[in-house]
Every structure is written in structure tokens, then in C-alpha cells.
Amino acid sequence: MQEAARIVREGDAQLARYRQALDAGGSPQTIGRWIAEVEARRDEARRALAEPAASDAHRVTKGEIKAMIKPMNRISDLLAQADPTTKPRSTPSSGSASPMTLRNN
User: 3-class DSSP state for residue 72?
Assistant: First the structure.
């Protein structure tokens, strides 16, 4: 965002100088090309400034968080009901777990 704002500010300053050059008798064709280039860069930067930042696109609500957590509670309940003899045992060296079965209640 800061880069886009900088491009707009610099473009405004450049356009003011180009207008002065025109008033001083500079070549309208050459200065016209310069103006077109600056305006294109400046317009692109303005579009970037107008777009919402990715971080502002969506804030997660409490309700959405609860909806995400609810299925995890169900998984936790199922794991708590699992047969202790078949629950996975993690080993620090391998990081793997054995297969497990869940009881149907």
C-alpha cells in the first residue's frame, strides 16, 4: 500500500513538472507520451489503493469460530470413547501412531 501511495504522489509531481515543460514550449508529442506513461502508472497504483487489503477481506465472527470448533468437540468425544487397548501410542522417535478403532455407543 505504501508503495502505491508513493507512486501516486510521485506521479502527481511529475505531471506538474511536465505541464510546466509544456508551458515553457516543450514538445507536446514527447511530453504527451511522458504524461500518458505517468498517468497509466498512477491509475494502476490508485486501483491498488482502492482494493481492500487481504487482511481486511473477512473478519471471523464468534459464531463462525464456534461452528469450526463444534466438529472438533465431536472428534474429541469419539477419541475419549475409543478402546484404550487400540488407542494410538505416539513415540517421540518415530512420530507415528498405530491404527485405532472407535467403539460405537
Answer: helix
Q: Is the pTM of this model over 0.85?
A: no
Model confidence at 65, pLDDT cuts 50, 70, 90, reads confident
Distance CA 61, CA 65 (A): 6
Cβ atoms of residues 100 and 88 within 8 Å: yes
Alpha-carbon distances, residue 94 vs 35, 89, 90 (angstroms): 65, 11, 8
Helices (H), the chain: 2-23, 28-50, 62-80
How remote is the C-alpha of 72 from its chain's centroid? 26
Residue 102 CB partners (closer than 8 Å, separation 6+): 78, 79, 81, 82, 83
For 26-34, the CB contacts below 8 A with 24+ separation are none
